[in-house]
Write a sequence for this structure.
């Protein structure tokens, strides 16, 4: 099992330096390329720069809940915080309270979720205060200073101008290379459970692909399967509801055709049977299909279909590419065949007509 720890570097461009505790080899990388350095079952101790969080001394009250402690802590430091307190995550540890920006923490967790390793995200000063109450670590580009347990990162210029504020007496700088020895890293790993782990796995296609060893096609297939499993019942319910609506409307049309005046149709089959038992065919009107022999003579091949509406006693004749001259002659002769044309909806183009002709059905 390979053990890696991030070296204390500045956070410009999210640049990192990883140290392998076994080989002591250091590799420079960034958040987006972290996944290239880890094999399965590796361990990564990611030390969060203290410039990304604020540390306060706070005595945690075990007699009340964490929520009450958060309220009490926020009440104490509310006037000292510039940012919206709701955008900050509160962490309690070792009689300290840390404020960390939630968006930044989410960005780090998203990147760390894409690596195949057991991840520990720990505020950097916590691995030092067990050994040093006061320490000055030379990071080459800046200094990591812990004064009475409170960490800060400062530049050389700022340190020179404010050394009395940041440093206690006789606090000599320790080189980062001298600090991160194999023994130090192994000791941090041994006590890893005693530190708060801020890592939270963020689910995404990339993280699932990395941890489950599956391709994107497989993920899409699983997603489609789940969508079908949960979506098909709703689709079938929608279809059944539509069919029921059509059935209900159809039954109303049937009762209307039977001159049924009732408004409450609770048992359609039974009610239809009762109406049929008392139905007098001699008193009911009937209709006949209009005389369409004249159309047959002029060219039935131009008729697309005929829609007969018995309740309205009409028929809609739909034609396609009917020669216009031939159609005009046909319509002029329709009265001779006892056909009453109610409406014409025709479009003519290049000598051909298409559309529909509405004719009436005569009673017997």
């Amino acid at each position: 099992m390979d053990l890696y720890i991030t070296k204390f570097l500045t956070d410009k461009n999210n640049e990192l330096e990883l140290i392998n505790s076994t080989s002591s080899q250091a590799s420079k990388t960034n958040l987006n390329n972290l996944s290239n350095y880890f094999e399965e079952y590796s361990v990564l101790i990611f030390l969060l720069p203290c410039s990304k969080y604020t540390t306060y001394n706070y005595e945690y009250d075990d007699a009340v809940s964490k929520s009450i402690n958060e309220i009490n802590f926020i009440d104490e430091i509310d006037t000292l915080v510039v940012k919206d307190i709701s955008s900050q995550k509160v962490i309690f540890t070792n009689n300290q309270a840390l404020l960390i920006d939630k968006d930044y923490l989410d960005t780090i967790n998203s990147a760390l979720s894409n690596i195949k390793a057991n991840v520990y995200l720990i505020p950097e000063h916590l691995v030092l205060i067990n050994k040093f109450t006061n320490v000055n670590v030379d990071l080459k580009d800046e200094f990591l200073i812990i004064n009475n347990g409170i960490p800060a990162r400062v530049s050389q210029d700022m340190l020179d101008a404010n050394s009395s504020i940041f440093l206690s007496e006789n606090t000599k700088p320790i080189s980062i290379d001298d600090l991160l020895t194999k023994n130090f890293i192994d000791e941090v790993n041994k006590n890893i459970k005693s530190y708060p782990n801020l890592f939270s796995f963020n689910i995404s296609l990339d993280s699932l692909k990395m941890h489950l060893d599956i391709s994107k096609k497989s993920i899409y297939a699983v997603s489609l399967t789940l969508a079908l499993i949960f979506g098909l019942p709703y689709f079938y319910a929608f279809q059944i509801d539509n069919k029921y609506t059509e059935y209900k409307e159809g039954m109303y049309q049937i009762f209307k055709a039977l001159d049924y005046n009732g408004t409450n149709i609770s048992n359609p089959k039974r009610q239809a049977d009762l109406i049929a038992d008392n139905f007098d065919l001699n008193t009911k009107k009937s209709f006949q299909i209009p005389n369409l022999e004249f159309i047959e003579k002029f060219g039935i091949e131009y008729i697309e279909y005929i829609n007969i509406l018995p309740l309205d006693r009409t028929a809609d004749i739909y034609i396609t590419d009917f020669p216009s001259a031939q159609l005009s002659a046909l319509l002029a002769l329709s009265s001779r065949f006892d056909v009453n044309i109610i409406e014409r909806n025709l479009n003519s183009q290049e000598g051909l007509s298409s559309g529909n002709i509405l004719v009436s059905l005569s009673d017997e």
User: Anything to note?
Assistant: The chain has three domains: 3-213, 218-277, 293-360. The two ends are 96 Å apart (CA to CA).
